[in-house]
Amino acid sequence: MKGKWLALLCLLPFTLFYLAFQIAPLIWIVVNSFWSDSMEAWGLGNYQDILTSPFYQQAITSSLKISILSSLYGLIIALIGGYSLHQIGNGKLQRIIMSFTNMTSNFAGVPLAFAFIILLGLNGCITLLLRKYGLLGDFRLYSIDGMILVYTWFQIPLGLLLLFPAFDGLKKDWEEASALLGASRIRYWLHIGLPVLSPALIGTFVILLANALGAYATIYALTSGNFNVVPVRIAALVSGDISLDPNMGSALAMLLVVLMSAITVIQQWIQRRSYLNAR
């Protein structure tokens, strides 16, 4: 009993920290999102303005497009990379790659933006090389396609770290047995491999989506806040000099919370119905 109380006492600083920096700000955001500065009244005015404004609709659409596509691309590349790493076995090469992946998973924000500006900016070294040989086309780093490329880059290491342990659930005997029964590798993956990995794939996709929806530093450093996505709009509303309206920013933040909560609920429902959790 004494050890239990000691453990609870040790958790007290963490609990206070969590309440101060997670629960209290969330309550503040929820309450203030219903106060409209323009109407000077409580209600759904902020949400109505957001959902009827083409400017905010564009921010939401751009955020969803960048987040969904970068998460999907990152998941596919991480799936291929995780399988390849699993196939080479527990050797020195695997440890080196996983260490490098762990390091690059933290390579985001301003350093990542600076790296892409040097490589693919208007006068980046790769941009000049591709332009010289006429291979650049209409690609611009500061367009939505460029943002998807940047986001995909920092999604890949995180996706690989999350997916790689799931491949331990694939038994080599299953692949050998399916081959003996005449199944091709494609049929093996469609009927065995992907169903077994589906909970990990869905969970990883949701985490990558949340990671992309909340990303701020990278896109702000690349575009100086001139790209219309939800995190940039929230920052402008909370700390901007011209469009200062923290209550509207709170409403935008709550829309993100509701969106991610809905996605998480759907993910949990799909996982319960997945092959791995079927009774």
Automatic annotation (TrEMBL):
<protein>
    <submittedName>
        <fullName>ABC transporter permease</fullName>
    </submittedName>
</protein>
<dbReference type="InterPro" id="IPR000515">
    <property type="entry name" value="MetI-like"/>
</dbReference>
<keyword id="KW-0997">Cell inner membrane</keyword>
<feature type="transmembrane region" description="Helical">
    <location>
        <begin position="66"/>
        <end position="86"/>
    </location>
</feature>
<dbReference type="Pfam" id="PF00528">
    <property type="entry name" value="BPD_transp_1"/>
</dbReference>
<dbReference type="GO" id="GO:0005886">
    <property type="term" value="C:plasma membrane"/>
</dbReference>
<comment type="similarity">
    <text>Belongs to the binding-protein-dependent transport system permease family. CysTW subfamily.</text>
</comment>
<keyword id="KW-0812">Transmembrane</keyword>
<keyword id="KW-0472">Membrane</keyword>
<feature type="domain" description="ABC transmembrane type-1">
    <location>
        <begin position="60"/>
        <end position="267"/>
    </location>
</feature>
<keyword id="KW-1133">Transmembrane helix</keyword>
<dbReference type="GO" id="GO:0055085">
    <property type="term" value="P:transmembrane transport"/>
</dbReference>
<feature type="transmembrane region" description="Helical">
    <location>
        <begin position="150"/>
        <end position="167"/>
    </location>
</feature>
<feature type="transmembrane region" description="Helical">
    <location>
        <begin position="188"/>
        <end position="210"/>
    </location>
</feature>
<keyword id="KW-0813">Transport</keyword>
<feature type="transmembrane region" description="Helical">
    <location>
        <begin position="251"/>
        <end position="270"/>
    </location>
</feature>
<dbReference type="InterPro" id="IPR035906">
    <property type="entry name" value="MetI-like_sf"/>
</dbReference>
<feature type="transmembrane region" description="Helical">
    <location>
        <begin position="107"/>
        <end position="130"/>
    </location>
</feature>
<keyword id="KW-1003">Cell membrane</keyword>
